[in-house]
Amino acid sequence: MADIDGVSIVAEGNLERQNPGAQTIRTSEQLEAVLQEMGQTDLTRRNAALGGVDFERQVVVAAFLGRRRTGGYSLELTEVERGSEFITIHMRELSPSPDAMVTQALTWPAVLILVDDAPPGVRAFIRN
């Protein structure tokens, strides 16, 4: 998975939120709640993906696309802008090709993004 300037996607799954957006996670309790909501209950897999987040210097951002009618959708990290007060994370939505064989079920694509040396503010933008 892409790593841009200390920002990387560490987990992918479904996060049942109706509208696209992002949530900044700053505590292990918040992270645990989001992991449960994403159905990430396998402790070995979760620990391998997140490997002990140091919330003193790192944050996790949950970015989600909202409901999609089929599988095959995902998010790609495209750009990171760092400033002293904010970090801005840019992502784009990847859609399945028209002839792709995809799951015929509702999905809520989401990713967890680990941000190293995070400034106080975090912004995330998703582009279609």
Question: Can you characterise this structure?
Answer:
There is one protein chain. This protein is 14% helix and 43% strand. It has helices at 28-37, 43-50, and strands at 3-4, 7-14, 21-25, 58-64, 74-82, 86-94, 109-116, 121-127. Strand 5 (74-82) and strand 6 (86-94) form a beta hairpin. The longest helix has 10 residues, at 28-37. It is globular and about 45 Å long.
Return the average pLDDT rounded to an integer: 88
Distance between the termini: 19 Å
Number of discrete domains: 1
Largest sheet geometry? 5 strands, antiparallel
Q: Give the structural class.
A: mainly beta
Number of E strands:
8
User: How would you sum up the global shape?
Assistant: globular
Low-confidence stretches: none
The largest beta-sheet arranges its strands as 1-2-7-4-3
Roughly how many Å is the radius of gyration?
Answer: 14 Å
Strand content: 35-45%
**Number of helices in the DSSP assignment:** 2
Helix/strand order: EEEHHEEEEE
Measured as a percent range, the helix fraction is 10-25%
